[in-house]
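can u pls check wat happens w/ zinc ion
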Amino acid sequence: MASPRHILIVNSRSVHHPVFVVGAPHSGADLIGRALKASPGFHVTIGQPSVLRTVYAFARRPSMHQGRPQAAAAVIRDAFAQGWQVSAHSCLECTRECRAAAGLPADAVGPCVDLRGLERFGDASPDLIYCAEALTYAFPDARIVQVIRDGQDVVASMLADPVVMSWFRPSFVNMDTEFPNPFFGIETEDDREIWPRLSPAGRCALRWRWSVRLAARLHHSLPAGQLKTIRYEDLMSKPDDALADLSRFTGTAVSAAQIRDEARTSRNRARARRTPGSALGTDDIAQLTKLAGEELRRLGYAS
Ligand SMILES: [Zn+2]
């Protein structure tokens, strides 16, 4: 998929090899985003309003952009041209996560990055995954990092997250006007038909399954140098190897401290747990296996 050469200039720097971190909710994309943001010379935005608006439009109304890749690419480039701009006010409207990742106190006045030495740009906004294919069109030299995590853990974490669960409110569900619906992981008429009867875990399972299917599609459409899939489990069990791999891929020394900390905490948590096993109940596991058994197996997560 080729698009006309288009070089985006931000703060008089041309954007080359921007890095985008994507994943299903609670897959660990936020961790990678924060580590990249802490890397020298890297301006990673997390939830800039201009970017969020675009991400939200793509996630909720994909039909608006379907079959219009040029227009979609222009919208995305504009959003980032604005979002990546570094000024005295640049982090003011960002999410709390972005400010914290930059080491800014909650009440500090931006910017979240030093203009001196700034060389690279990236973004790790929540739900960026719904723009992944359009991003590669908007930025043909983009590097996409996709984080994958065991569906059982993702579904369990989603169920415990009131923000994620609030998207399933009837007033928010737009299956009738948007089909297929990547946001809800609804791809076929069968999916649409069973959806109303699915448990909350089943609904989360469909969202996870869509992210795994997207990963497979990206693998087909992008050269190896443009897509890196990182397993959350590897990041936690062998953080140094995963970080070295990520540094090679992004062409920057990715800051390791936070991820090493997180990995240590996660190992301690696992050790403290008396009975190993899933955080999901048997009914939920059965539903996940029924809906996404093939994806779990393909990724080696089926027990
Ligand atoms: Zn920010």
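The pocket of zinc ion is lined by residues 45, 91, 94, 98-99, 112 (CB under 6 Å).
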